[in-house]
Design a protein that fits this description.
Chain lengths: 313, 257, 313, 257
């Protein structure tokens, strides 16, 4: 069974990754998970300086999902290089470093520094970050800024450059098209959906920042629709993300057009979900008589004359 | 650390809405230390969705026990478990209480379900040669779960049993009669009680460890969901799951309730 | 306890309504539900001509929710007036007729005809409909078209005019502001979220139109955030909708700024949910020592310095 | 029509993965007619989320029975119910089979779990003075649930019991030996079987009613989620829940499987 795939100049051993912010820096789970069985690890988002993150409460359970407002707590790029990268280099899997920043220049600085390091296979860019220049509105909802970040970073690296898109926009495929034109090798679809939870009795929001990011199985239908929208209109490899708990969920993402998937929130239920899913996809493909998991990519049997925003809802 | 299904050996109601659930798991039974917790998945479905953290209450041979109050969906499902059912466990997790050190007497203070880690803690302390004095508070007598606690001092808010008042007031009155210098305080319970314990311990110049709660997703340091604010530290937050749940009371700022 | 509220010239006995498309035309459930205990009934969307709706499968269960693609199957405005309205007039609750159309003119025709009828208390406008002139893209994602529909309809009626907004946009509050300026009396927030479900084994979408509308508790966090966004920036009454199953859920919507709520998918689990919720809100308010349910509206205790699109997700 | 909790009186496995669940509800027991169904909420949680529709299988005094195969979450939970648990029921729903009319002989054809409405249907038909001949097909003998069916003709795909072949082939061979003119056909089962039954009945000029399945949310006509295409009708679709689940086979177009 052919399980792997290639992006730019990097070969990944399979199509299952763990999503940024849901697997730490890989070292926390060394006793529980055979990370060598993953296609790769997306690290927690890194910024130039360490970030404390938001005050508690940072998480709240919601129906079939959770809300988070971690505030991108992270150790900063220097501590990462010093303390985490040496360990990550010993792992038998690919390391994709996820980058978050509050200015275009900060994205460039972080990537520039990391690009010189050994043992990093690619970059995933989290654009769901407040742009301080624009009053803190997220880069990720501004198509021009997203494209600008992409082209600036493209100039800095020969490694795979993956832009992680936010679902909180009307037309996600326009963003995918823009970053493709700006030189991205792939897009990750999707980050969390803006959501909110309230305690009726105390009248307080359940997370300290009032609103936060919704993840988990609750958003799987939304994520599938976003991946499908991108796959239908832009020719670019997609990492499908959102609510994947099982191999069957992952196959659904491949069918609608994802070249690979990432496991996020499910890691909090079981950090070895990625390994189980990778094995599960393989046996599913075997049962279906396939020779290459890639045969599932985009293999949905659907009417093609239907646009996601054209329905009577 | 293990992540697996464990066979439930029984569930019993030990006070109003308070249950003890026991399950077999030799690895946890062998390795768990007082103050550590388990992150439990109550069943395979999506509702409830996240794991639920519980302190280890007692260990007997291969059997591990937790004690809990039914407050929502997860605990309701746990209370309905029967011998032969399974729970999925992840643990033992977290930093245990520091039971080594110079002190000779241990003052254990529990409010409500804060008694959870006390039986196993008392046992380990005694094994380590410490004298143990335990103080337990509850709103009313029906909510007291005093099983497996050796001659506890009891306080109830409504005076329906023991001292009439808070457990911290009881500790203070006890200290007036029996001043202690060579003691260490261990406390678990609601935030307001922990604040009072912390003030009391610092005023009495006694070392003091608190066991904290906080919303958790993973329990193993990968979600960053469980910060507690630190005092005068370079990093502003510590994680309750991996740097706690037990903390020296002088190092952290308790969250307002 | 004061439970009611007034919109324009209509007084509603309480703040709990049933959402369009989830309660039929009210007659199907006459033996199960005391509809007189509801603030009002939003009818199934009506168009000028009857619509067959989409082929099966039209629904699929998803984690804590469901996907639907009914295709606005409805009996058309003439049959409604003839066959359904006489019964609805006998009910001791308010009737809000929901209107869907594929051109601005059709919206006007349907509302114009209905506005002459007895027994209709107001109109809710479903703008999540494909605009045939614009290649079928939904009116509801086009702020100008949404405002145009609103002002055209405003000119035709003195009854409450409520615009039902779609969540599938970047800035829902801009739409709320636009329809307020165009004369709307209130907004309904929100319609379903675009989603998709796939059968991994057959490789087919689980609903015939490939994508559809996600509803139910899964989307409650999204709906709360959308209502909060509108309430924070536009001064207009809001009907909060999305995943409400219990009185506590409803109170959460009031706290974030909804003046009233609508029960949708929950009716499929229990069509008397609205009645239970109305009673539950009342006893909740009594427990909290209130004299008027309205005291809960917007009473969230939150930091105000935080915009929904400004977070580090 | 009722919407309430009903006490489970028992669950038994009657064939491989096939269970009968019984519960007490006098109103349903008194009013239900053959071919009608109930929409069940299997428990209070959100997973599974929607109700699940099941035909009424049998009624005895106040007790109602359904029969089902475990195929997913909902049916797995139902299979795990015990006496004393509850299920939340909504029903009876739908249009029953037409058992009045001129015919003297009823031909009941069931494929797999299509036997579900047959016991209650057979009983009502016999009470109405009709002669009943029942044909049951299954993939293999272990999946046959023939309880409460009077002298059924049996077919299995693998020949492990009775006729070797499909149940419709069995009916056809039966008809060759016993030609029927004054008969009406009632069928329930997989779409492909229903298609074959429909072709057979129309070729034989026999009236025929089919019991259909289809994804359902509400079961009571308010979601419009369960259309079936009609033939030569003004309205293109009928709703399976309120205009069915039983339909004259000449009025609808079956969906491709
Ligand atoms: C380290 C640790 C140890 C704990 N030990 C015990 C114990 O030994 N006995 C005991 O009864 N309880 C203990 N708790 C609290 C216990 O986890 C909650 O009571 C339980 O999760 C409630 O679940 P539920 O589904 O019944 O309630 P719900 O209200 O339905 O839970 C909803 C959400 O809130 C979270 N939550 C609710 N209450 C708490 C809380 N107090 N702390 C953290 N998260 C909470 C749940 O995990 C869940 O995500 C501990 C908590 C922590 C963090
Ligand atoms: C009118 C009617 C009567 C029925 N009577 C019976 C019966 O007597 N015995 C029996 O075993 N089954 C019957 N079914 C099918 C039964 O409803 C499904 O097998 C059951 O819902 C599966 O639930 P699950 O959670 O185990 O499966 P899942 O696969 O987890 O269900 C997922 C979703 O698909 C729907 N679904 C799955 N299979 C079917 C199906 N065949 N038809 C409609 N919806 C489906 C479920 O309702 C649910 O929404 C009937 C269906 C209908 C519409
Ligand atoms: C607690 C938490 C922290 C996250 N942190 C990050 C992050 O640092 N950077 C990032 O790009 N995405 C982050 N995400 C988003 C996930 O990588 C993923 O896109 C999202 O959760 C949807 O997938 P899921 O439903 O499988 O969780 C985080 C998600 C969660 C739940
Ligand atoms: C089956 C179904 C049909 C619906 N039909 C309509 C409709 O005709 N018009 C409309 O404006 N909204 C329609 N809606 C949207 C609901 O009114 C509501 O906005 C949405 O479902 C979110 O609320 P909920 O989560 O409580 O269901 C429909 C929803 C469902 C589930
Ligand atoms: S609970 Fe996940 S980091 Fe502590
Ligand atoms: S199931 Fe809702 S209309 Fe038939």
């Amino acid at each position: 069974m052919k399980t792997g795939f290639t992006l730019r100049n990097v070969h990944f051993k399979n199509r299952v990754f763990v999503a940024s912010g849901t697997f730490g820096y890989g070292d926390e789970v060394q006793n529980l998970v055979e990370v060598g069985q993953l296609g790769g690890i997306m690290t927690k988002s890194l910024s130039w300086k360490p970030r404390d993150g938001n005050p508690p409460p940072r998480i709240a359970e919601t129906p079939s999902g959770m809300l988070n407002s971690i505030g991108l707590a992270n150790i900063g790029v220097h501590a990462f290089i010093e303390k985490k990268l040496p360990y990550l280099r010993t792992l038998d899997t690919c390391i994709i470093v996820n980058i978050a920043a509050s200015s275009v220049q900060e994205y460039c600085d972080v990537l520039g520094l990391l690009n010189e390091q050994e043992g990093i296979h690619g970059f995933e860019i989290n654009v769901s970050c407040p742009n301080v220049k624009e009053g803190g509105l997220s880069f990720g909802i501004d198509c021009d800024r997203t494209a600008e970040i992409t082209s600036r970073l493209r100039a800095l690296t020969e490694k795979p450059l993956i832009i992680k898109l936010t679902p909180n926009v009307t037309h996600i495929s326009r963003f995918a098209a823009a970053v493709k034109d700006a030189g991205a090798d792939a897009v990750s679809v999707m980050n969390t959906v803006i959501g909110m939870a309230v305690d009726a009795r105390t009248r307080k929001p359940r997370i300290s920042t009032t609103t936060g990011g919704l993840s988990g199985p609750a958003i799987k239908p939304i994520a599938l629709a976003k991946v499908y929208e991108v796959a239908q209109s832009v020719d670019i490899p997609i990492f499908g993300i959102g609510g994947i708990m099982t191999a069957e969920d992952a196959v659904e993402f491949l069918l609608v057009g994802a070249s690979a998937v990432q496991i996020g929130t499910a890691n909090f239920i079981d950090p070895s979900t990625g390994v189980t899913v990778a094995q599960g996809i393989e046996s599913f493909a075997r049962q279906q008589g396939l020779n290459d998991i890639g045969e599932l990519v985009g293999a949905l049997d659907a009417r093609r004359d239907f646009s996601v925003l054209q329905s009577w809802l | 650390m293990t992540l697996c299904n464990a066979d439930v050996t029984g569930v019993r109601e030990v006070a109003q809405g308070v249950y003890v659930l026991s399950f077999r798991n030799p690895e946890v039974a062998r390795t768990v230390l007082p103050g550590q917790f388990l992150n439990l998945r109550v069943h395979e479905g999506l509702d409830p969705f996240l794991r639920r953290p519980f302190s280890v209450y007692r260990v007997e041979k291969d059997v591990v026990e937790i004690i809990f109050q039914v407050i929502g969906k997860g605990t309701a499902i746990l209370a309905g478990k029967k011998r032969g059912d399974v729970v999925n466990i992840l643990g033992p997790l977290g930093v245990p209480f520091g039971i080594g050190g110079e002190f000779t007497k241990a003052i254990l203070i529990a409010g409500g379900l804060g008694i959870a880690p006390m039986p196993i803690l008392g046992e380990h302390l005694r094994k380590a040669g410490k004298r143990v004095e335990i103080f337990v508070g509850a709103r009313t007598v029906g909510q007291l779960a005093l099983h497996h606690l050796k001659s506890p001092h009891v306080a109830t808010d409504d005076g329906s049993r023991g001292f009439h008042g808070t457990v911290v007031a009881l500790v203070e009155s006890y200290f007036k009669e029996h001043p202690q210098t060579d003691a260490k305080v261990f406390a678990c319970g609601p935030t307001r009680m922990l604040e009072a314990v912390s003030r009391f311990a610092q005023a009495s110049f006694l070392p003091c460890e608190l066991s904290l709660e906080g919303e958790m997703a993973c329990g193993i340091g990968i979600c960053q969901g469980c910060p507690v604010e630190r005092i005068n530290a370079e990093r502003r937050y510590a994680l309750v799951c991996t740097e706690g749940p037990t903390f020296d009371c002088t190092t952290i700022r308790l969250r307002e309730a």
